[in-house]
Design goal:
Helix content: 40-55%
Strand order of the largest sheet: 1-2-4-3-5-6-7-8
Order of helices and strands: EEEHEHEHEHHHHHHEHEHH
Number of strands: 8
Number of helices: 12
CATH class of one domain: Alpha Beta
CATH topology of one domain: Rossmann fold
Radius of gyration: 17 Å
Strand content: 15-25%
């Protein structure tokens, strides 16, 4: 397990644990009411949703999970950290908690991971919230190039040895929007090379998870397309550009609200938590 204890002021939640088929999973389960499952991407963990959970737990049951290899969850030696595997483990947790009528929110890789579990449990899904993510094969040349470069041996070494994804891409974007203590909650939860193995797999999955993403491109419209849906989108995101992604989401969901976040970049939960809280509360009263 990770030898890191979140500060109760920054992360005022009770840690809970689930023994999945592959390892011990950390999650939080706060509040009462209609359940919402929050799915993070890379290189983050449930800490990313702390302000949103704090803002919604007075009226919803807010569940935010750390995937194996992320946050406070275990780093099992024999786990591959593939998107398909994270999807399976999230499904096990949802079934363990016996969630019914739940809303699922996914951002970054949390979109495919969350939607993969939701398509298999469509009759139990109340609604979908997506923010700066995709559920189809990632084709743009810039994304493919990023995958190739980050999968190379020198860059994999920098991810493992220097925590590159956290230091450069996450903290590089968020900069002065985080306190030093908040930055340390992202930095210190991945303290060693061994603890970063899950992070190192994610850039490879842009190409390697193509089969699963292609399946989601069929399954999401067919199984979830008529669910109430909300897209909250950072309009300055250079990873999942709004002009390419939002029209595809509009085509998929017949009952969709779109909330544009004009000044937010990729990590929308840090940039505009209050706007996201308001949008979810309005969409799923």
């Amino acid at each position: 397990m990770i030898d890191f204890v979140p500060d109760k002021t920054a992360y005022p939640f009770e840690s809970r644990w689930f023994d999945s088929s592959a390892g011990r999973v950390h999650y939080i389960d706060e509040g009462t009411g209609p359940p919402i499952v929050f799915c993070h991407g890379s290189p983050t963990w449930s800490f990313l949703y702390r302000k949103i959970v704090a803002g919604l737990r007075d009226r919803y049951r807010c569940i935010a999970v750390d995937y194996l290899g992320f946050g406070l969850s275990e780093r099992p030696q024999n786990f591959g950290y593939r998107i398909s595997q994270h999807t399976t483990i999230l499904g096990e947790l949802i079934d363990h908690l016996q969630l019914d009528g739940f809303v699922l929110m996914g951002q970054d890789w949390g979109g495919p991971i969350g939607l993969g579990t939701a398509t298999e449990r469509a009759d139990r899904v109340r609604g979908i919230v997506l923010g700066n993510t995709v559920f189809w094969p990632i084709e743009p040349l810039a994304n493919q190039a990023f995958s190739v470069i980050m999968s190379s041996r020198p860059m994999q070494r920098r991810i493992l040895e220097q925590n590159l994804l956290v230091e450069r891409f996450l903290l590089g974007e968020l900069g002065r929007t985080l306190t030093e203590e908040e930055a340390d909650h992202y930095r210190n939860v991945q303290p060693t090379e061994e603890s970063r193995r899950g992070l190192a797999v994610m850039p490879k999955e842009i190409r390697s998870a193509r089969t699963q993403l292609a399946q989601l491109a069929q399954d999401v419209p067919a199984l979830l397309g008529d669910k109430p849906a909300l897209a909250v989108w950072g309009m300055r995101d250079m990873v999942f550009r709004p002009k390419a992604c939002i029209p595809r989401i509009r085509e998929t969901f017949t009952d969709l609200d779109v909330v544009e976040l004009p000044h937010a970049r990729h990590f929308i939960q840090e940039h505009t938590p209050n706007e996201i809280i308001a949008a979810i509360a309005k969409r799923f009263p």
